[in-house]
C-alpha cells in the first residue's frame, strides 16, 4: 500500500515537472533577452587549494563564456541586446548536490532528478538576488589530489548543471569550455562525440565538416569538446577562443533552422 502511494506521488510529481520543463524550453530558447545564468561555486574535496581558488573568483572569471556566446550568436545573425547570456556569480555553496550513483535505474534516476531540482531551487533562494533562469553548480577540485574529475552534466529538464572543474588558474580556459558545454546542454544541445572513445562524431562533431582535407580541423565544435587532428587523434583546446557552435548545435538551441 505504502509502496503504491509513494509511486503515485512520484508519478504525479514527474507529470508536474514535465509540464514545467516544456515551459522552460520555450522560455529559454526565445532569445529575446539575455538568459540569466547563475554560477554557484563549491569546494568539492574540502582542500585549501579549492578554497583559495573559490575566494578569488569573480564575474571576470567567466567573461570568456559570455563573450563566446555573444560572438557565436552573431555568426548565426542572432542579435540579443547585451548578448545571449548574462553570467552572475553567487555565494559559495557549502552543501554538495545530490549524487546520481553509477548504474542507477529509471526510478532512482527520476528520484535523483527531483532531489536535484529541490536542491537547485533552495540554492537559488538568495536574499536580495534575483533567481537565475539557469543554475550551474561548479565543483572545484585540487588537481594535486585529483588527476581526473567526475563527469559533468547539464539537464534541460530543470535548467541546471553540475560542472566539475580544477582549482588551478592555468586551467581556467578549459574550465570555461566545460561550463559553456554544460550550459548548452541545459538549452537542449546534445553531445557530438562518441561516449566510448571521446572522439568527435562526423559530421556534426566537426567545426568545419566540409574542410578538405577533413583533418586537421582548425577549430573545435563545443559539443564535441575536442578537435580532430588526424583520423585517429583528437585534442582538447586550451580555451574558448578556438571553439565554435556548429550548425546542428545551433539548430538544437534555436539559433538556426534544422
Q: Work out the helicity level.
A: 25-40%
From the spread of the alpha carbons, the general shape counts as globular
CATH architecture of the largest domain: 3-Layer(aba) Sandwich
Q: How many structural domains does the protein architecture include?
A: 2
Q: Return residue spans where pLDDT drops below 50 for at least 5 consecutive residues.
A: none
The helix count comes to 6
**How is the biggest beta sheet arranged?**
5 strands, mixed
Strand-residue proportion: 15-25%
- CATH class wording of the largest domain: Alpha Beta
- What is the CATH topology assignment of the largest domain? Collagenase (Catalytic Domain)
Structural class: alpha/beta
Side by side, the strands of the main sheet go 2-1-3-5-4
Strand count: 9
End-to-end gap:
48 Å
How would you describe this structure to a colleague?
The chain is an alpha/beta fold and 258 residues long. It has two domains: 2-188, Collagenase (Catalytic Domain); 190-258, no CATH class. It is built from six helices and nine strands. It has helices at residues 2-28, 48-55, 63-75, 106-124, 172-186, 247-252, and strands at residues 35-43, 85-89, 134-141, 153-155, 160-166, 220-221, 227-228, 234-235, 243-244. The strands form three sheets. The protein has a five-stranded mixed sheet, sandwiched between helices. The chain has a two-stranded parallel ribbon with strand order 6-9. It has a two-stranded antiparallel ribbon with strand order 7-8. A hairpin with a 4-residue loop joins strand 4 (153-155) and strand 5. The radius of gyration is 19 Å and the shape is globular. The mean pLDDT is 91.
Amino acid at each position: 500500500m505504502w509502496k503504491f502511494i509513494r509511486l503515485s506521488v512520484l508519478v504525479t510529481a514527474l507529470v508536474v515537472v514535465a509540464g514545467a520543463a516544456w515551459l522552460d524550453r520555450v522560455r529559454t530558447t526565445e532569445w529575446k533577452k539575455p538568459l540569466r545564468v547563475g554560477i554557484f561555486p563549491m569546494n568539492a574535496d574540502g582542500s585549501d587549494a579549492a578554497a583559495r581558488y573559490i575566494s578569488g573568483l569573480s564575474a571576470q572569471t567567466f567573461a570568456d563564456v559570455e563573450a563566446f556566446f555573444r560572438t557565436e550568436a552573431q555568426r548565426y545573425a542572432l542579435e540579443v541586446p547585451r548578448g545571449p547570456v548574462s553570467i552572475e556569480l553567487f555565494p559559495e555553496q557549502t552543501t554538495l548536490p545530490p549524487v546520481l550513483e553509477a548504474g542507477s535505474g529509471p526510478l532512482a534516476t527520476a528520484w535523483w532528478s527531483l532531489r536535484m531540482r529541490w536542491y537547485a531551487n533552495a540554492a537559488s533562494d538568495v536574499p536580495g538576488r534575483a533567481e537565475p533562469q539557469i543554475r550551474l553548480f561548479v565543483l572545484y577540485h585540487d588537481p594535486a589530489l585529483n588527476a581526473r574529475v567526475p563527469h559533468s552534466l547539464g539537464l534541460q529538464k530543470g535548467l541546471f548543471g553540475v560542472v566539475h572543474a580544477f582549482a588551478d588558474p592555468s586551467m581556467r580556459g578549459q574550465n570555461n569550455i566545460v561550463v559553456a558545454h554544460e550550459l548548452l546542454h541545459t538549452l537542449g544541445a546534445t553531445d557530438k562525440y562518441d561516449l566510448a572513445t571521446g572522439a568527435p562524431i562526423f559530421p556534426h562533431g566537426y567545426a568545419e565538416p566540409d574542410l578538405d582535407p577533413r583533418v586537421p580541423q582548425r577549430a573545435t565544435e563545443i559539443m564535441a569538446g575536442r578537435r580532430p587532428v588526424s583520423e585517429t587523434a583528437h585534442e582538447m583546446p586550451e580555451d574558448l577562443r578556438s571553439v565554435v557552435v556548429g550548425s546542428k548545435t545551433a539548430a538544437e538551441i534555436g539559433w538556426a533552422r534544422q
